Amino acid sequence: MNDSTALVIDRLKVKEQQGQCLYLLTVGLNSPKTLNALTLEMVDLLYQHLLQWQTDDEVAGVLLYGMGGKAFCAGGDIRSLYESMTAPEKPYDYCDQFFSREYRLDYLISQYRKPIVCFGHGLVMGGGLGLMAGSQIRLVTEKSKLAMPEVTIGLFPDVGGTWFLNKMPAGQGLFLGLTGAQLNAADAKAVGLADYYVGSDGVEKILERVQAMSWSFDTAQNHKVLCELFAAVDQRYESTMAPGRLSVYSELWVILAKARSVYDAIKLIRSYKIDDPWFEKARQNIIKGSPYSAALVFWQLTQGKDLSRAEGLRQ
């Protein structure tokens, strides 16, 4: 069923027993031209549907993915936010509504009582990573590129970034927040932003596997079987997964974790000597990015290191 151009929703029957049916709901973020950037309409529709499905006995789980094949979601729709800020009347109304409702959606996903599978293929940035980080089962492919690039546009890593960046191995979350560096599938798994690697499988192949598995009317059992299914796929494709970059810099992370100020952290990153295009791009992001954002990121992560996910979203 398609009830909005912003979302493409399908209802797939996965089990029928004694006249009772179970369905998997697939939700495609549908704005390929903007790399599925989140709008207020998208956020509101997704929240309303998830709230309804959570108490619908016929809904076994939800699969989130991005239309177009290039991105799950590249973040919030910056153009809409900018246009609202420059509007002559009530310039910040849209911004206030967008961010408060986006955070509400992120929290709902993180606390959802049924399995949510997020297919993080292609670009997964900012608000897209907020959706993915809270999902119970997070899939990545060889084309996945995850990042929190807010420092490059004068913002800060919101959508739960205070919580999930602080859950990463010491020093790595701070580096990613300060530089907006992109993570591939291996690195995403290493820092806890992804669970399973599914290779070049498209959403159609994933749906075939999911539909064919042994579904139950028990939510916990469905989650267990889904994890077993994707763990088997992950094991099959693991040898084809490109290596990550983060493990190369283990000494840097130890030192960075001890930085006492944003000045010390930036100085360390800028002066670190290594011939690596990935690191150099990250370094240029911090050089060209907003110094105010960098200072805010450092404060956000150091002051919020003990906050819960909910507290981080309210920070």
Give a short account of the largest sheet: 6 strands, mixed
Let me know the number of strands.
Answer: 9
Do you know the CATH topology of the largest domain? Answer: 2-enoyl-CoA Hydratase, Chain A, domain 1
Rg, rounded, reads: 20 Å
Residues in helices, as a percent range: 40-55%
Order of helices and strands: EEHEEHHEEHEEHHHEHHHHHHH
The H-level CATH homologous superfamily of the largest domain, spelled out, is 2-enoyl-CoA Hydratase, Chain A, domain 1
Strand fraction equals: 15-25%
Outline the low-pLDDT stretches: none
Q: What would the principal axes of the Cα set say about the shape? A: globular
Structural class: alpha/beta
Alpha carbon gap, first and last residue: 37 Å
CATH architecture of the largest domain: Alpha-Beta Complex
Give the averaged pLDDT, no decimals.
94
Total helical segments: 14
Spatial order of the strands in the main sheet?
A: 1-2-3-5-7-9
